Each structure stands twice: as C-alpha cells, then as structure tokens.
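Design review, sub-item: ligand-bound model
Attendees: FS, YL, KQ
YL presented the inputs for the 2-acetamido-2-deoxy-beta-D-glucopyranose complex:
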Amino acid sequence: MSANKSGDGGWKTFIWNSEKNEFLGRTGSSWFKIFIFYVIFYGCLAGIFIGTIQAMLLTLSNYKPTYQDRVAPPGLSHSPCPDKAEISYSIEEKTYKPYVDHIKKFLKAYNIENQREESKFEDCGEKPEPYTNRGALESDYGLRKACRFNRAWLKDCAGLEKKDEDFGFNEGKPCLIVKLNRIVNFRPRPPASNESIPEPARPNVQLNLIPIHCTNKREEDAEHLGPIEYFGLGPGFPLQYYPYYGKLLHPDYLQPLVAIKFHNITRGYEMRIECKVYGENIDYNEKDRYQGRFDIKITINS
Ligand SMILES: *[C@@H]1O[C@H](CO)[C@@H](O)[C@H](O)[C@H]1NC(C)=O
Ligand SMILES: *[C@@H]1O[C@H](CO)[C@@H](O)[C@H](O)[C@H]1NC(C)=O
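KQ shared the predicted structure:
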C-alpha cells in the first residue's frame, strides 16, 4: 500500500516538482535551452535546404532547358496522324473525312490572316535562306518575331481552293503535312554534301534547306509508290525559321511545313512509306519511330 502511495506521489512529483521547480524533471531554464537549441538546429536545416534550392535555381535559365537529352534530335510529326500510322480509306465511300478534318485543323494556325500583326511576325523570304539571328537567348531583345509561313505555299495541299478542299484524298492523291518538332536553340544543319545522303534523296538537296525525302519502305513496293511531289519553300525545312527561342521569347513561332503529295499510289494496295530528313546533326533511332523519320502505311481503295 505504502509503495503504491509513494509511487503515485513520485509520478505527480515527476510532472511538477514544486521543491526544485522542475517540470518533467527539468528546470525552466533547462527547457528554455533545449527550445533554443532546436530553434537553431531546425533553422539551420531550413537554411541549408533553401540555400541549395536557390543555388540550383540560379543555374537554371528561364529560356533554355538545362537538360535536353531526352528530346535530343528532332522528331517529325505529320498530319493527318492516324492510329497505328495507317491511312486507309475508300474514295467512293468518302471515308477520308477524318483525315481531311485533321489537316484542316492543323493548318488553321497557318492562315495568313492570323499572321498579320507586324509586331509579332515578319517576312523571311519565299526561298530557303540562312538562319535568322535574333540575338542570344539570354540577351535583352525581349519577344522575338516569328517568320510568317503562308499556307498558300503548300499549293495543291494548302486546301485553299475548292478543288483542293479535300487535300487530294478524293482523287486518290492524298497530301501529308509534315513539320519538325520544336527544339529550343536548335539549328538543324543541312547535309555537308550530296555524297553523305542516299542517292534517291539527293535531288531534294538545296542550299539552306533540311531536305526531306519519302520512299517505299520495302524494296518490292517500288513500282506501287508512284510520283511524289513536295510543296513548301522547297522539298524540306528552310533554315531561316531556326533557331526557335522557346515559348516565353517566341510565343508566335510557326514551324515551317512541307506538304507531300502522293500522286499515284497503287489502288487497293497497302503501301508502306518511309520519310526521312537529312542533316549533319539529325540522327535516327531504332526505338523512336519519329526521330528524324517516320513510317506510314497508306491504303487507297477506289
Ligand atoms: C545534289 O544533287 C542534286 C541532283 O542530284 C542537285 O540538284 C543539287 O544541286 C546537288 N546539291 C549539292 C549541294 O551539290
Ligand atoms: C499510275 O500507276 C499505274 C501502275 O500502278 C500505271 O499503270 C498508271 O499509268 C499510272 N498513272 C499515271 C497517271 O502515271
């Protein structure tokens, strides 16, 4: 009994010992020192944390991505961009409407009436020219102007005239619109010489142009491909549209386009086509079907 009593008393005394003025076994000044210790301790931790983040942020640029390895060389994209990279339609049943709608939507940004504002756009010539230098990324030029790209340059694939409103799909001569994906501060370099690229692509080599060339993917399909025509500022991507300064500095930027028209793909045949761009700093990757090239299957049924 007595042990129990003294135990109770011990417990209470432990919480508040009025003799020694101790709370939970420590005096006020001891608690105060512990409190101060932890304030300083966590203060330092927070300081180190904020300091390293700030130092990290200082090394980042608002304008240029620090790490670009994931997107390294440019990808190609095209419109229409069907599932499984397979265009298949019937002329008679007019089943090409989804493709035509995709191109119409894609080309809207290239309507010349959206490119009127002189403060945002400028003319960069109607033939391939050298790179347009708009100052270094980190300089104080502010917003950069974008080169106009007039949809009408895509001629038969522009979809501006009544006869072309279906982009050739209705005649079995479909158009494909192709662009190189944007990469901040990237200057694609054209092939050093005609000899560095495959023979069939050489006619598309021009000064100040990244040539694009499409051909049959399988050798045995050669006779089914028919003639191909390229529209734009040439059969490729003209250099005056590069470099791109990024979303913040170059908000109105338009990528140059190339339209590819397939004039006589054999009807009822699954035609496999490969399109490739050629340049000194353009590579291809087995695993990435869109890096510097793309494959597409086109089946046109009457
Ligand atoms: C490459 O060859 C094509 C014809 O095969 C020619 O039109 C073009 O001018 C040549 N380009 C260069 C840079 O030699
Ligand atoms: C289209 O290709 C076929 C062979 O697939 C050929 O017989 C025909 O003459 C070609 N048409 C034109 C206009 O070149």
